[in-house]
Request: fold
Amino acid sequence: MCRSSILSLGQAAPLIALLDDLGIPWLAFADGDDSGRKALRKIGRRIGRHVDRNSDEVVMLPNDEDFEWYLVGQELQPAMTRGIANQYGDDALVVYAKSAQICADDDEALVGFLRSSRGTYGAAVAAAIVSTETETGEPVIPERIAELLRRASRILGATQP
Reply:
């Protein structure tokens, strides 16, 4: 399978610096782990000011969580599994778990599969998550992602429904 290229937050520093120099608003969604903190420091050095979880442009996951574990913590495993099956086939997790010698029903298998497929699973897993409804019939949107969308809406001057 061909992997698409995905720009990590650390690699985004030159782009963010350009946007900042041009006065164009930007947002960063950062993992709460060490790599997320390092990426924010790199961006800060590049743009000449301190950037961390408290910066207006940053939405950061809870301490020590990466995106995949954050989604598991939001109890989205059924939707994530459905998205994986839709994208890669019904047996994708079982095949991955067998090759990794772990239990296919374990969160470790789910997170391991997603990490090994970064840059390719986003649309399918996101569609499965938002097709899940809350008790009031609203689509499920994890809180930190909802915060990112609220900030983007403010930047764009959009109103919320």
Remarks:
- The first strand starts at residue 28 and ends at 30.
